[in-house]
Amino acid sequence: MSELRITFAGQTFTFEPGQTVRIGRNPDNAVVVSDPIVSREHARISWRSDGWVLDDLGKGRTFVGGLPVASVSVQQPLDVHLANPLGPELRIEVAGTGSAGTGSAGTVAPGTTTQAATPPGAEIAVAAVRASTAQYQGPPPSRSAQEHGESVGWGDLTGPAEQASMPGRVRHASAVHREELWRGDISGTHSGPAYQQLPAHHARLDFPGGDFATAVHILLPVRSWLKDPGWKQGSRLLVIAYGLLPSLFVVLFSATHDLSAPGWAYSLAIAPLWAVTFWVLIRPGPITKLVAWLAVAIVAGVMVLLPTVTLPWEDALDKTATVHNLLPWIYGVGFAEEVTKALPILVAALLLRWVWKITLDVRIWMFLGTIAGLAFGVRESVLYTSSYLMQGNHRADLAVPLILTFAQRVFVDGFQHAVWAGIAAFFIGMGVNYRRRRIPLILFGITLPAVLHGLNDWSTQLASHWLWIVMEAISLMLFIGYTMSAASIERQVRDTPLFRGDSMIMGAVPAADQVEHR
Length: 518
Fold this sequence. Notes:
single chain; alpha+beta; Tumour Suppressor Smad4; 5-stranded mixed beta sheet; globular; disordered C terminus
């Protein structure tokens, strides 16, 4: 039998030869692994002439035996981890080579797992994986191969029958991938199977036009590039867009007299990059329609509150003329700006909880807090960069400081505000989800970043700015600490009567992708 069996999360999937099995986070995959660190289309197992082959699709890393693999033949039961060596684990095996699961072809047998002792040949599978990631030092190549400078592995020296009698001796994965790439059968971003036998007539390429045309086709594989599905990946499109943006800004805004134009252009260009960074750090899960609409509403709320709350508050309590008094920097600047960013988060969280009975994970609120901070930072950087450009007045002694300050505002201002707002939003989410200590949690969540914010701004007025760098470092370490332990902190709060109360039973907070189905 050559049925393929995949066991994941207590369920066994069975597939017949000829099927293509896709693995990833996308619900359309044959095996769905709904972990945010897993790519939407992470790996693929396909049926080849010599059996089942697992291919990494290039959008995430796939590990077997703790080693990253591009392609590996399923000759023995494999324990495969996705994204990292400790990521989600799948047991992949072919019927007759190890333990057998239950279920019919292409179906799932719920609640069943495949448990068996590791067969004696399991070490061979690991050896095969190691051979596909580190070049195998085999016997010397033939004389003809040496004369042509070819790199020859075991697959070049033996046929299928001989290879079957020499388990663990496999062709180097990069050698097969290299030959397929030169023939144009695959693209440079997607690895081919590591155990495919190549006919001899593919050893040389001939194109009309002679050797020069052949060399151009190999060195500039435009046809393969145009067919490459990698163009659909957002990361590659972002690289192109951000590589062209600065030049586009020069062309579009060189003749403008609006001093706010550079601030808007660069701030709005940088903000999405920081948003992606925060999403990677916090790992709030998929961005659903609900989360996207919440982000839009929160950004709009920040833009409305900034001129109506923040600026009047700061004007009324602006007593920061002297650096000897620290408190005005905290209650006149820190609280004014942190409350502005926190209010839209708090209102949105309470409305969802009380009106629509929806509870979101605190990591989602933390991510939305960073979005609120980015929106505030973009608007503030535009105001400041306009004033900096007006101060230049062709003075040489101001040129370098103004350029450096402009860059700091544009590239880092939104980031700093996002860090403080993310900390506040984390505690707001905790307070909304666990009502017994709601007010203390929310007040602490706003007070902590407000104090950090006030100390940060106050330190910039000192003769030495090294304290400013220290305050920024403290804020960053706190933020990153909460991104790493948000889930464990919430779990401890949920299990502690101090926060949830003795009589109140809190279930697990639903995942973000489940909220829209309520």
